[in-house]
Amino acid sequence: MRKIRVELEKQVDDSYDIQLSSDFIEDVLTGYEDAFFLADSTVYAFYEELFQGRRTLVLDASEKNKSMESFIRVLGFLHDNGCRRDGRLVAVGGGITGDLGGFAASAYMRGISYVQVPTTLLSMVDSSVGGKTGINFLTSKNNIGAFHQPGAVYIDTDFLRTLDDDEYLNGIAEVIKYGAIFSGDFFDMLLEKRDALLERNADVLLDVIAECCRMKAEVVKEDEKEQGVRKLLNFGHTFGHAIETDSGFTVKHGFAVAAGMYLENLFGLREGYCSEASVSRLGEILDAYGFEKEYKINDPEVFFSALSADKKADKKGLTVVFAPEIGKGEWVSGIKTDTVKDFFG
């Protein structure tokens, strides 16, 4: 069992552990017999025995269901099953399930405890850690939500055995992001161990997930509410969220972020923020893992409306994150939407 502590200096009581191992989640969940469970329907179908005898709400996890209607449904489930102020919600699923469950926990009775049990690679390395919760509203992703830290995060890599290849790659994109903005050595290792990672080698996977969680824990410790360094974790997301919206969410989050990272750095090269080497090396690793680097806009009005509505934008313009050099991230604020429109032609 590996353990990573997420320390919150300003709210020490909200600090918590990320625990990582394999084949241990059933034993963990026996300690939450009195909890309320929110489960992704796909996970439930594979692991129905985990939920026997437990108060469980099963939801289809899709971007279109990451909605106010689903949020209200979770609140209703908690209310109808007698959840009180000392209740606990356990979210078992990918990022959508965790974000939705965490947001409902933040609002129900002004905040109850919740636990994250991520079952996808993307949620293991990113969304389950750090307390960002939320839903999509109208045409924007994650623009309603709250910061509400989990009481614990349990990462059982055995869940990844039943993950389909597209969903697995969906998480690889976020793994690459960590190397691009924080660690050139980690980036190089991802290229070196590409075959082992794609083959889901257990030891390599555990090392990679643990390192991503360690990096994110350090960022959250320094900047819980995304006022500074935590903004770097949005690399690829400004363009990526617009890609998701424009595609009607047919492009999965990680694939959109992969293209978003490359396009943001290509835009950065044009604007003088990035080196040619950073664009080239980012393209190399994305090619190695089979990601598309380009994106053809379907509806410019939808794409640029989503870009302008991005939650990182303000009245001065967009905030875009770049990797000027591999292993070093920076963000630039006040970028005009018209400049981005000109880039996309």
Structure description:
The protein has helices at about 25-30, 40-45, 70-80, 95-105, 120-125, 165-180, 185-190, 195-200, 200-220, 235-245, 255-270, 275-290, 300-310, 335-345; strands spanning about 1-5, 15-20, 35-40, 55-60, 90-95, 115-120, 130-135, 140-145, 150-155, 320-325, 330-335. It is an alpha/beta fold and about 350 residues long. α5 (about 120-125) packs parallel to α6, α5 (about 120-125) packs parallel to α9 (about 200-220) and α6 (about 165-180) runs antiparallel to α7 (about 185-190). The longest helix has 21 residues, at about 200-220. The chain is globular and about 55 Å long.
Strand and helix layout:
Layout: E1 2-6, E2 16-21, H1 25-29, E3 36-40, H2 41-46, E4 55-59, H3 68-80, E5 88-93, H4 95-107, E6 113-118, H5 121-127, E7 132-137, E8 140-147, E9 152-156, H6 165-182, H7 184-192, H8 194-198, H9 202-222, H10 237-246, H11 253-271, H12 276-288, H13 300-308, E10 318-325, E11 328-335, H14 337-344
Task: Determine the strand fraction and express it as a percent band.
Answer: 15-25%
- What is the overall silhouette? globular
Query: What would you call the structural class?
Result: alpha/beta
Largest sheet: 7 strands, mixed
Continuous helix count: 14
As residue ranges, the low-confidence spans are none
Q: Average pLDDT across residues? A: 95
Which series of helices and strands comes N to C? EEHEHEHEHEHEEEHHHHHHHHEEH
Strand order of the largest sheet: 1-2-9-6-5-3-4
What's the total count of β strands? Answer: 11
- Radius of gyration equals 19 Å
The termini sit apart by: 51 Å
Give the helix proportion (percent range).
40-55%
